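Data's thin. Show one?
=====
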Amino acid sequence: YLRALWLTNSFVLFCLAFQVRELLGPTGVLSAEKLLNKVQGIVPGDSVYEQFLLYPTIFLFIGATDNILLFTCVAGSLLSFLATIIGGTFGKISSTISAFILLSVIVIGGDFCQFPWDFLLLEAHFIALFLPVVKPIKNGIGAEREPSEIPLFATHFLLFRFMWAMGIEKLPFINGEEEW
């Protein structure tokens, strides 16, 4: 499960790398730099750290130029892919960093990254922090031990909510679309 989650995160960030400059770059459709300037003017707080607590993105610290946006997406994709291959404690740490990079992009992504599956992926990453470490790939692909009941229940509940929400969305009296 963890390796599939990490590989999914790698693919998401890899695909974003091809689009991020045109969408969120300084001359993009929704400029992240302009958004960050608004945040710094609107969000109360004397320091960037206080703004970070309300608006958690790494781009508050490093800026949002074309090259920085591209580099973070590629670096996050590579970290997640390496986590998939290597596993172990390195996999847990690098996938957490990669998930934080994805969170940072989603926060500045606005309408381009505000889809339910983006938030579900982040929630799955949060739950994955409480799952056991996977074995290094040379020792097999499974976990080092069985997961405890609470993170396992949280994972099942996440999957239930996903399936329920995607099914309920198709009901015409819920979504307002008669074509369904």
Remarks:
- The chain has a mean pLDDT of 87.
- DSSP finds nine helices and no strands in the chain.
- The two ends are 33 Å apart (CA to CA).
- The CA atoms of residues 45 and 51 lie 6 Å apart.
